[in-house]
Amino acid sequence: MTIQQLQQNLNFIKKIIGFENFPDNKENLLIQAFVRRSYSQEHPEWQHNQVLEFIGDSVLDAYFVRKMCLPQNNVFG
């Protein structure tokens, strides 16, 4: 994939997810979010997304636990 193709793909992704104003100096995080571990083993210049996936899962877990524990959303009572 050429740099131009990568940039076009990033611009398309940013438009789809509503991140048109995503800082250019943070695009490496956006790229990393889409890189699988198996790909990064073949291409060591790319970081895989496992750390981002772990952080995202933790944030979602915290959000759902909080929602479940609020009195108006208590699923246990």
Structural features, described:
It is built from 4 helices and no strands. The N and C termini lie far apart (54 Å). With 77 residues, the protein is mainly α. It has helices spanning 3-17, 27-32, 37-42, 50-69. 61% of the residues lie in helices and 0% in strands. The longest helix is centred in the C-terminal third of the chain and has 20 residues, at 50-69.
Question: Which features characterize this protein?
Answer:
0% strand; 77 residues
Number of helices: 4
Rg, rounded, reads 17 Å
Order of helices and strands: HHHH
What's the count of strands? 0
* End-to-end Cα distance: 54 Å
C-alpha geometry: flat
Unreliable stretches covering 5 or more consecutive residues: none
Instruction: Describe the sheet with the most strands.
Output: none
Strand composition percent? under 5%
- What structural class do you assign from the helix and strand content? mainly alpha
Helix content: 55-70%
Structure at a glance:
It is built from 4 helices and no strands. It is mainly α and 77 residues long.
Task: Give me the secondary-structure topology.
Blueprint: H1 3-17, H2 27-32, H3 37-42, H4 50-69
